[in-house]
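Quality-control log, excerpt.
Job 1 of 2 completed; input and output follow.
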Amino acid sequence: MEESLNKDYSFLNEIKSRFCLKEVDIRTYSPLTLAFIGDCFFEIIVRTIFVGKGNKSVNALAKDKNLIVNAKTQSMIADFLLDHFNDEEKEIYRKGKNTKTQNHSKSAAYSEYHKATGLEAVYGYLYLTNQYDRALTLLKLASDAKIIEI
């Protein structure tokens, strides 16, 4: 059976295996470390959705992606999803949102940037704990509620 068809297969586990990465207690990661990987994970989901909708120019795809993957929109998503987060996700979000950062977006308010960082921390946690279905479910909730159009 091909590995990608194996129900126990995980891309993250494959990375860990091939590069001999040790298991790390997720609770030891800082909120900004979670946000660092969560930013990428969130973006790859959004990019995959737009690419899956059909062939477009790279500029058009980037424009579509940029409507979702930005601090202002991610802040709105976070505001909506807060009621849908479980207790653990709420705690990770709170820590990510409240973490002091060196930079912030020039196109978003300080509070929007911090909410986006909290959302990215949640997505980082979901990625690093192989909770891909949960990550997709949360984004679909925001889409279904017309918070975002994807």
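Job 2 of 2 completed; input and output follow.
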Amino acid sequence: MEEIKVFCPATIANVSCGFDVLGLALDSVGDEMVVRKIPEKEIRITKIIGQDLPLETEKNVSGVAGLALLEKSDYEGGFEIEIDKRIKPGSGIGSSAASSAGAVWAMNELLGRPFSKLELVQFAMEGEKLASDVAHADNVAPAIYGGFTLVRSYAPLDIVPIPTPDELFATVIHPQIEIKTSDSRKILKTTISLEKGIKQWGNLGGLVAGLFQNDYDLIGRSLEDHIVEPIRSILIPAFDDIKTNAMDAGALGCGISGSGPSIFALSQGENTAQNVAKSMEETYQTIGVPFDIHISKVNIHGVKKLG
């Protein structure tokens, strides 16, 4: 193969109780990317449509992630990248992660898969470092592995795939404002109380157990964030109203997607997810905030080849 076209999924990171360690991939929204081999040992970004992003390799997350892979590869050539950017930067659903993960996954396919998924996550994390100053994996891991993933450890990097119940759907509303991940991280406290930590660890364990056991009630009880949401939610218009109305519409739980401003809800069944979407729409229509909304099954494959 000399060229490949791929779908690069949007992702929900943190999933309420798993700050920087938990994430899931979406199926209905993502970027598309074409990657092809070139004889020169370099990464070239030749076209970006959909968003105004830099073509310079060192200033683009896909370029930086690709350079990290190329540095570890025996391949004597390089790659050319075209991006159809459908995830808006600063949306809170893994825009930079989609570009980073898609680039390295596609390159690995063209080279005959010399690198493991864990290694691809490490390369993609370099793109995340460029975007947010922190090489976090909670978005790129599910983008590459698919489904839910847990980052058990960063040093050494240890990714644990988690099974996804068949009837689990996500609803995501994206208010048309931008919150940069780097700015959103700056407002967080660097210490927490033991009491809050215990609550958070219990919820994270409960959510992982609920996913393994297909226990939707346990999943719902565990979707609580005692540490990050109380701080970041003040940046998001009508967050409390969105959450209350989503729960009234039948959502299992509702929280901030990544660093925001997107808000996600998880539901059992597509009909409930549609009802949750309607409640979110009505809330923002009332206060006059423009938005995008997505309803999606959890994407269990991650980045995938198109065509």
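Post-run check on job 2. Residues 194-213 form the longest helix (20 residues).
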